[in-house]
Amino acid sequence: MDKLRAIQYFLSAAQAGSLSAAARQQGVSLQAVAKLVSALEAQLGTRLFERAHNGLTLTVDGAQYAEACAPLVALLQAADDGLRQSKQRPQGTLVIGATPFFLQHAVVPGLPDFHASYPDLGLDARAVVHVDDAAARDCDVLLLHGWFDAGDWVRRELPVMRQVTVATPEYWRRHGMPRHPQELTRHNCLCYRNPYGKLLDLWRYRQLGGREEVIEEVVVSGWLSSNHRDHLVELVRRDAGVMRAAHATEQEALASGRLVPALLDWELMDPPPLALYYRPEHRRTLRLRVFMEWVEARCADLAQLTGGAVLSDAAGRPAWHQGNHRRASSWLNRR
User: Fold this and answer.
1) What are phi and psi of 51, to 5 degrees?
2) Structural domain of residue 289, as residue ranges?
3) Is the domain of 167 the same as that of 30?
4) Do the domain assignments include residue 221?
5) Quick one: 110 and 17 in the same domain?
6) What are the distances in angstroms from CA 169 to CA 136, 224, 230, 250, 268?
7) Nearest residue to 196 via CA among 129, 150, 274, 137
8) Residue 188: inside a domain, yes or no?
C-alpha cells in the first residue's frame, strides 16, 4: 500500500464528505480511492469513517487521525513546491522602465551578475521618468525616483540613498569649498528639473551632531539646469559647477577623488523616495519576482556602502513640492 497516497485520499474524503468527491479532487477513479482508504483502515485496525447513504462522517479515531496527519501532508506539499520552484529558471523577457540616471549608474553596473544568475531571462530596459509616461504602459516593472501616485501599480519602497554636495577638486580650488550651506549662493549650482517640471533650486540642509535641530534653506542658482542628471554630472566633472548627487551613483568618482563632497557636517534633506512599481496581476510571475528581489538587495547594499539609507516621506511630497509653481524656491514666498 502507498501509505502517503492513502492518507492524501483519506484527507480529501474527510474534507469533501464523500469518496467520489475525493476521487474528483485527486483526479483518480472512485475505486482507487475506496481501495486505498479501506487498506488504510485495515492497517490501522480501526474505522476512519461512518458510511451512510448521504455521505461520510469521521469517527472519533478518524477525526483524531485527520488532525494529526493534515499538518504533515501540508509540510510535505510545501517541501515539494519549494523544490520545484528552486529548479525553475525564469525565462522570457522582462521589460524594465526606470529613471535614466539611476538605471545607468546604479542598476546597469550590476546587471552582469544578475544575468549570470538567470541566463535564460532577457531584459528590455527603457527610460521612464513618471508612472504616467506612455513608455511605462509597456513595462512589467518600474524603478522610479519621486513622489508619484501609484495609480494601477503596486508600489514597493526601496532604501533611499544619501545625497551629497559635490564638485571636482579643481573647482573647489578655484572657488573655495563652502563651510556653511548659505555660501552656496556664491557658487554655480547646477539644478535638476524634476518630472513635474519643477526646478529644484531650493537645497535644504540639516546640521548633524547638534543638540538642537538647525535647518538651512538655500536658494541656489547656476547657468545650466536640466531634466537629465547626466548633463549636470558632465559639467561638474569638467570643473564647471556644483551639484547634489546620490552618493551611490557617484561612489567610484568619490572614492577616486575625482569628485569631492562638501558640507559633510550637514545632511541634505528631502531626498526623493525610490520605489518599485509593478502590475498586481504580475506579482507571482517568476521573472518579476527574481528581478525585484535582486533590485531590493542591490539597493540595500548600495545604501550600506554609502552610509546607510535615509528617511524619505514616500506618503506625501514635501511642502515645496506642492502646487504648480515652476521653482521649488517659490514655496519660501508662500509660507
Assistant:
1) -100, 130
2) 92-160+274-305
3) no
4) yes
5) no
6) 39, 20, 19, 15, 20
7) 129
8) yes
Question: Is 229 found in the same domain as 132?
Answer: no
Indicate whether 314 pLDDT > 50: no
DSSP three-state, residue 152: coil
> What does the pLDDT look like over 274-307, one tens digit per residue?
889 998 877 778 889 999 999 999 888 887 766 6
**332 located within any domain:** no
pLDDT in the model for residue 301: 82
d(CA 312, CA 271): 6
In a 3-state reduction of DSSP, which class is residue 61?
A: helix
How many CB atoms sit inside 10 A of residue 102's CB? 20
225 with 254, same domain: the answer is yes
User: Is residue 21, in this structure, part of any structural domain at all?
Assistant: yes
Q: What confidence tens digit (pLDDT) does each residue in 177-193 have?
A: 999 999 999 999 999 99
Domain count, the chain: 3
Alpha-helical runs (H) found in 148-280: 169-175, 229-237, 251-256
User: Is the separation of the CB atoms in 21 and 13 below 8 Å?
Assistant: yes
Closest CA to 166 of 251, 269, 109, 101: 251
Long-range pairs for 227-234: beta carbons < 8 A, 24 or more residues apart: 227/129, 227/192, 227/193, 227/194, 227/195, 227/197, 228/100, 228/101, 229/100, 229/101, 229/192, 230/100, 230/101, 230/104, 232/190, 232/191, 232/192
